[in-house]
Amino acid sequence: MDEGYLRELIQKLKNGSLSEDDLIQILKSLPFEKVRSSHIDHHRHLRHGIPEVVFAKDKPVEDVVAIGRRIYEKSGRVLITRAREEIYRAIQIKEAEFFPRSGVIVAGIPQDRVGLIAIVSAGTSDGPVAEEADLTASFLGSKTLLIEDVGVAGIHRLFAYMDSLMQANVVIAVAGMEGALPTVVASITGKVVIGVPTSTGYGTSLGGLTPLFSMLNTCVPLITVVNIDNGFGAACVAHKINLLVASEET
């Protein structure tokens, strides 16, 4: 891709030999940009509505900084997950905020967000994953409500938020230990629930496998499950569902 090619496309659009729909299809497949050892997909949002996000865990600081800065330069916004404070200090994006509990660095959360996604967590130990889901969904453009520490050990706490849960278009339920929270939420609300098993728990939780298996074996048919500790993935799916429901309501 070069400037001449883009000008040719613009000229074809002006003279009517290229339709707007055809141009959109061409833009969806424009080349990536190579930065250090990575290939940044700047046009991912055009293809499926979710921009490229930087997963920082186990990556060198200089790689994350270079990728994050370039994404921000091109789009004016960036989301980095599983980041460390040294990355935040090095990236030097004035608008960026760092959330140390979840390890999220974010810049460019839109002011006008739509619909409503409720994120509920079973315990405070599940908070980092719940916060990752909350920040990701907000970055993508969904309104969110974060409700923490309402697990089945004191189920009456959840009932205090029933009105808010019933207003949500979709619910993300984050839980470790035995992973029962998604089943309870789906059962009492009738909402589509995205279960996020976490690695929180004692020995036989097996690093999150026990809540994962529990959620997969739920008897409530309104639940889908993402990978262990994957608040980001849950938020992406919830955002898509939220947009569909919100569009039907307008």
Describe the protein's architecture and organization.
With 250 residues, the chain is α/β, with parallel strands linked by helices. It folds into 2 domains: 31-107, no CATH class; 114-249, Rossmann fold, CATH 3.40.50. The protein is built from 11 helices and 11 strands. The strands form 3 sheets. It has a 5-stranded parallel sheet, with helices on both faces. It has a 4-stranded mixed sheet with strand order 3-4-6-5. The protein has a two-stranded antiparallel sheet with strand order 1-2. Helix 6 crosses helix 11. The longest helix is centred in the last third of the chain and has 19 residues, at 231-249. The protein is globular, with a radius of gyration of 20 Å. The chain starts with a helix and ends with a helix. The mean pLDDT is 92.
What tags apply to this protein structure?
250 residues; alpha/beta; Rossmann fold; 2 domains; five-stranded parallel sheet; four-stranded mixed sheet
Largest sheet: 5 strands, parallel
In total, the number of domains comes to 2
Instruction: Report the uncertain regions.
Output: none
**What proportion of the residues is helical, as a percent range?**
40-55%
Distance between the termini: 38 Å
CATH topology of the largest domain: Rossmann fold
Cα radius of gyration in angstroms:
20 Å
Written as H for each helix and E for each strand, in order along the chain, the element string is HHEEHEHEHEEEHEHHEHEHEH
What is the top-level CATH class of the largest domain? Answer: Alpha Beta
Q: Please tally the β strands and state the result.
A: 11
Mean residue pLDDT: 92
Strand content: 15-25%
Structural class: alpha/beta
Described by the principal axes of the CA atoms, the overall outline is globular
CATH architecture of the largest domain: 3-Layer(aba) Sandwich
